[in-house]
């Protein structure tokens, strides 16, 4: 199957003509409800083995976008991966009172506008405000439906690096502990039998001075999951004062998303996007090596 983008339309050249419109699901991942809505709105055109789908409708922005620097790690017609810096929220609370800080959503919206792309901002996952690393965006509704389903089925892989306090001879393991809200502290989460299931896989990569470099892979995506789990087993993240980490050497938790892997929504190709360590993470790592 070959394909091309023609303005608002995706054009597919299939091996043979379709018997019914619903047979499109044999060639492209297409949620049935979305396909029926597309058919009803006139967004499907079939001429023999040539099929056109209106997957890229122009979507005017709701608000005037705000400029912020944006590091694009991967981009095509369907999705984009950008690097989130420390101290930036993925999105705001929806208000515009003049005092709200610029968010990653603002930066993405401005990027779309400045590059002539009329897309709504659709993040597929989030990172904590002070965690750095790649964030995946879908450019249109169809891609969002596919990527959201992949998040639910855990086929999108997120790998992180963290510098933690303490040392251990246990080089790898899995933390399978539920996480819920801390009733004594509104900003914190804690391991709780009444919380939601949370699973984190970890591997100790290097022993440092009273610290370790750890790589982690998430099986679930609970708020503060890595921070809570590592603190729970006695290895709080360096700089993470909320969960008991030492505060010298870095002004935030030393947690960075190193890579993001996902299947392309149209082609099924395995896309792997990596993000280099930010400067503050690298400085702390170097300092703990030298001590």
TrEMBL record:
SUPFAM superfamilies: Pseudouridine synthase (SSF55120). The keyword Transmembrane helix does not apply. Residues 80-232 form the Pseudouridine synthase RsuA/RluA-like domain. InterPro entries: PsdUridine_synth_cat_dom_sf, PsdUridine_synth_RluC/D, PsdUridine_synth_RsuA/RluA, RluA_PseudoU_synthase. Its EC number is 5.4.99.-. The keyword Ribonucleoprotein does not apply. It catalyses: a uridine in RNA = a pseudouridine in RNA. Belongs to the pseudouridine synthase RluA family. Responsible for synthesis of pseudouridine from uracil. This is Pseudouridine synthase. It comes from Paenibacillus baimaensis.
């Amino acid at each position: 199957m070959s394909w091309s983008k023609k303005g608002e339309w995706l054009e597919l050249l299939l091996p043979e003509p379709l018997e019914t419109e619903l047979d499109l699901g044999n060639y492209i991942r297409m949620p049935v409800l979305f396909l029926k809505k597309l058919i009803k709105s006139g967004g499907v055109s079939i001429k023999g083995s040539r099929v056109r789908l209106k997957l890229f409708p122009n979507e005017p922005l709701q608000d005037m976008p705000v400029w912020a620097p944006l590091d694009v790690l991967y981009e095509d017609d369907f999705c984009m991966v950008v690097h989130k810096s420390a101290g930036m929220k993925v999105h705001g609370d929806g208000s515009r009172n003049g005092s709200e800080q610029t968010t990653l959503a603002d930066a993405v919206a401005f990027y779309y506008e400045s590059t002539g792309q009329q897309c709504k901002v659709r993040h597929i996952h989030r990172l904590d405000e002070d965690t750095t690393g790649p964030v995946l965006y879908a450019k249109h509704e169809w891609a969002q439906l596919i990527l959201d389903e992949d998040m639910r089925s855990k086929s999108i892989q997120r790998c992180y690096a963290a510098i933690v306090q303490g040392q251990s001879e246990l080089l790898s393991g899995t933390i399978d502990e539920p996480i819920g809200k801390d009733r004594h502290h509104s900003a914190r989460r804690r391991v709780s039998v009444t919380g939601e299931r949370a699973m984190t896989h970890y591997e100790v990569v290097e022993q440092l001075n009273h610290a370790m470099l750890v790589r982690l892979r998430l099986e679930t995506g609970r708020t503060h999951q890595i921070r809570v789990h590592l603190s729970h087993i006695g290895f709080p993240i360096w700089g993470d004062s909320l969960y008991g980490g030492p505060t010298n050497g870095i002004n935030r938790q030393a947690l960075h998303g190193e890579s993001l892997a996902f299947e392309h929504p149209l082609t099924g190709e395995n896309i792997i996007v990596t993000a280099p360590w930010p400067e503050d993470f690298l400085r702390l790592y170097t300092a703990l090596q030298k001590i």
